[in-house]
Amino acid sequence: MPLNNDIVLRPRFTLEIPRPNESVLSDFENAKLTQKDFIVTRVDDHVFIKFPKEQQHFWSPQLHLEVNKTDDNSSSLHGLFGPNPTVWTLFMFLHFLVAGFFIAFAIWTYTNMTLKQGYAVQASITLLMVLLWVTLYFAGSIGKASSIKDMRLLNTFMNSILGIENEKAL
Question: Which residues span the membrane (predicted)?
């Protein structure tokens, strides 16, 4: 599962596992008790793996796994790397706020252009919103790039629990 996609801020992956989902989920439950490097939390068919508080920073990733039953002897695992949900929510809120201001000022600019009134301030703020959105995107990309090592550690931990050899592409 390569983690070097430059466009996707929250990489996703899917694995087919030749074991029942309860067996896989119990392995993660047991790992919670046998190691102290990661915090493992299970809620129903969902497993969350993250770093302990003292090792976390603003862009610290966490791994969200969903283990679904395919049949009696196999399951599918859906994984998602992403920042802390609070950070992600703030990040998305800022994106939507910038998009809302962009739309509002673009409409105001168009209206003033149509009415043949001055629109330099509105057009400037509209362009500023575009620059702000690009800045937010690059901030997210920088955050993801600074977390690649941590994502690899999470991936290695997950693979060790599942008994999968780590892929060379990571």
Answer: 87-108, 120-142
Crossing angle for the helix pair 85-114 and 120-146, nearest 10 degrees? 160
pLDDT tens by residue, 137-161 = 898 888 878 888 898 999 999 999 9
Lowest mean pLDDT, pick from 79-83, 101-105, 113-117, 130-134: 79-83
pTM across the whole model: 0.74
> What's the CA gap between 40 and 30, in Å, rounded?
10
pLDDT digits over 95-117, tens only? 999 999 999 999 999 999 999 99
Domain 12-83+154-162 homologous superfamily, CATH: Kinase associated domain 1, KA1 (3.30.310.80)
- Please give the helix or strand (H or E) that residue 126 lies within, else none: helix 120-146
Contacts of 117 (CB under 8 A, 6+ apart): none
Domain range summary for the chain, segments of one domain joined by +: 12-83+154-162, 86-141
Confidence of residue 88 (pLDDT cuts 50, 70, 90): confident
Question: Is the CA virtual torsion 26, 29, 35, 37 positive or negative?
Answer: positive
User: Cα separations (Å) of 125 from 104, 119, 139?
Assistant: 10, 10, 20
